[in-house]
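User: Here's a chain of 292 residues. Predict its fold as tokens.
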Amino acid sequence: MSLYENASIDEEVSTGGDIDQGGRNAYEKPLPDPPSNESLDKTEGIYFVPDAIYARPHQSGNGCHICQTVTEKREDNFIKTIWRRKTNIIMITLTVLVILALAIAISSLAMYTQNTVVAESRETESHNKTTLEMLTNLEKRLKIIESERENQFRKTLEMYNWYKAENGYWYKVFQNKVEYTNARKNCEVLGSRLASVGIRSQKIKRDLTQNLLDSTSQQTWIGLDNIQQNGSWTWSDQVLSTLNNTQWRSGYPDNENKNRKCGYLFYGRNWSITGRDCGRLFYYLCETLQPL
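Assistant: Prediction complete.
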């Protein structure tokens, strides 16, 4: 039985249809004539085609048109496969390039951010350095101004016969007799006050009496009074008077005598502190630490 007959019988069995007079299925499309046995002996290979299997004859000329169609389909499938592979390679290449581009962009952004931070840090450091230099120069200038001012103040005080004691304060006895309240105001006008700090110190008080008061031989107002509250004596720098910081004359303070509310240095009693009514006319001793 030939290959063609096998194909026909298989088709008849598979369809199960009626067989016409030509021995073919009534619903089967006419098949082309099969190749001869001589041609089958010279086949190069077997190809699957619709409804039958044929051997492609090795012949010249027009040849078998079904075999040519199969060959063309194989070539088309091969070309499509090649194009699919090329397309896949191209897509993979593009994906890799996109990933590389993103990596480069991220790296560049990180580098730019780092450079920006470093630049801002350097700028801030430079600004801080400049500010520090300005502050240092300003501090030096202020010291120079303060020194010049102090020198000018010292010259001014010396010119007007102010005396500088060891405690850093300047003192002067004004030899015009006034009441206590006027003496206090006159000292304040000069940027000073009635003496208090130097009088509380025995050492400074002794220095002041020897260099300023002994030559006058006059009672002298100091910054100590009981004007605001009876029985509570207060120095002009708002320090409360106590037995430890006030060298009272014996019998003082006399709080029973309400007229004795202002303190002065009593000449003839070793310059001891005495209370007297504030309307008396005495010299007065001013004290200052700040420039006039």
